Amino acid sequence: MSETATITIDGNSYEYPVISGTEGEKAIDVRKLRADSGYITYDDGYGNTGSCLSDITFINGEVGILRHRGIPIEELAGQASFLGTAFLVIYGHLPSQEEYVHFSQQVAGNAAMPDDFRHHFNGFPSDAHPMAVLSAMLNAAGCCHSEMTSNDREQDMEHFDQAAALLISKVRTIAAMSYRMSQGLPFVAPRLDAPYVDDFLHMMFSTEEKDYEPTPEIAKAMDLFFLLHADHEQNCSTSTVRMVASGGANLFASVSAGVSALWGPLHGGANTAVVKMLQSIHDSGDDGSQFIEDAKTGKARLMGFGHRVYKNYDPRAKILGGAAEEILNSLGHDDPLLDIARHLEKAALEDEYFVKRKLYPNVDFYSGLILKAVGIPVEMFTVMFAIGRMPGWIANWREIATGSSRIHRPRQVYTGKVDQHFVPVEER
Ligand code: SDX
């Protein structure tokens, strides 16, 4: 007999089915609640609300588990590449050798931007934020591919594979172009023969005199960074992608909206905020102890700490903490910000304020130190997050496009004025 939940309202009892996920998660299916009782649920920030059924990623925040299509992030981080993980997240299985070669070729072959695309960048002030540029340019890129942006679901799905490879590829190119524009540097054409990360860093840092070739340690660190950001259930930006997709909008429009949602300092903007926080602690001569006290009194926020779902260590933070040490050692950099980060982490993990609230380092706590070591400018950090998250956004768009989901349209509880009437301006 299937499990049910009973809700009693105004003396009436209503029974609703309980949905069980494959990892044992339970949900009460309240889709008929309003029709039955006239009541809706209220859940500010959706902390207790499942917006969808999804096969892509599973997180157990209590014990710090993250799996993509059932595979633990630790195994992917140790053995897969970013593109292999992107394929897994999007298509639901690890690619065969043949699938991997084809997918990599599709990505490599789609890196260049149409020549007339360069003129779009002239429309931005040189100090335009790269997230604003990225969001705008992803939609602009869709204008060059009307066959993929018809908003006719069947037609858009016919071109899905090409659109997915194109976006995973071009998100790097647009990012690099926005950086070159901000520096007043000429754009660098992609190379067809370079691996994903190498080609990106080439487009970012090559000069007319010399092509940029990353060290193996830098290439590995950036590939790991992108891999660890590939997908993360229904976070703020991924939910935004699904919201936009649910209205029938095409993939380019949906990921463009995802970029805007990711930009905020509480979400993808946190990696930038963490490095700025560490730098200001360092510049103030504090070793982090005073900052911890300020965070406890609400005078400051310990960026890179805390998470809506993880009430244990974010497994990505653990991996990135090790990778930060590794790349700094390999480059012979002795970054004082890493020492401060380690001090903050140790102090917070022992302090009652953080322990009671189950606040642990999240993916953003160490990621900025890796980007800083690679030479990525701090204002580009959130763009790096967007490059990594592109496969997850694409996979979630595909789930909406191929599923039976309805348009996302939450209800509300109205708390405004009632029984008002229009007053002519001369009487106001
Ligand atoms: C990402 O959702 C995802 O999956 C996101 C992400 C992904 O991969 O997509 O994992 C990526 O966005 C990671 C999160 C990056 N953001 C930050 O590091 C910003 C700092 N963190 C916080 O702002 C906060 O922890 C959030 C936004 C991450 C979570 O916010 P919640 O779940 O709404 O928690 P809350 O604000 O209700 O906090 C609960 C309590 C409060 O104290 P009390 O009111 O109980 O006294 O914890 C405190 C908060 O003041 N608190 C913090 C804190 N985070 C929460 N206090 C100090 N420093 C912090 N960082």
List keywords for this structure.
428 residues, mainly alpha, Rubrerythrin, domain 2, Citrate Synthase, domain 1, Cytochrome p450-Terp, domain 2, three-stranded antiparallel β-sheet, 19 helices, 6 strands, 52% helix, binds s-citryldethia Coenzyme A
Written overview of the protein:
The protein has 428 residues and is mainly α. The protein folds into 3 domains: 4-50, Rubrerythrin, domain 2; 71-261 and 382-402, Orthogonal Bundle (Citrate Synthase, domain 1); 270-374, Cytochrome p450-Terp, domain 2 (Orthogonal Bundle). Helix content is 52%, strand content 7%. It contains 19 helices and 6 strands. It has helices at 33-37, 73-79, 82-91, 97-109, 118-122, 130-143, 153-158, 160-183, 196-205, 216-228, 236-246, 251-262, 270-284, 289-296, 315-330, 336-350, 352-356, 364-374, 381-402; strands at residues 4-9, 12-20, 26-28, 57-60, 65-68, 71-72. The strands form 2 sheets. A 3-stranded antiparallel beta sheet has the order 1-2-3. A hairpin with a 5-residue loop joins strand 2 (12-20) and strand 3 (26-28). It is globular. The model has no long low-confidence stretch (mean pLDDT 96). It binds s-citryldethia Coenzyme A (SDX). The site of s-citryldethia Coenzyme A has 20 residues, from loops. S-citryldethia Coenzyme A is lined by residues 45, 232, 235, 266-267, 270, 295, 301-308, 357, 359, 362-364.
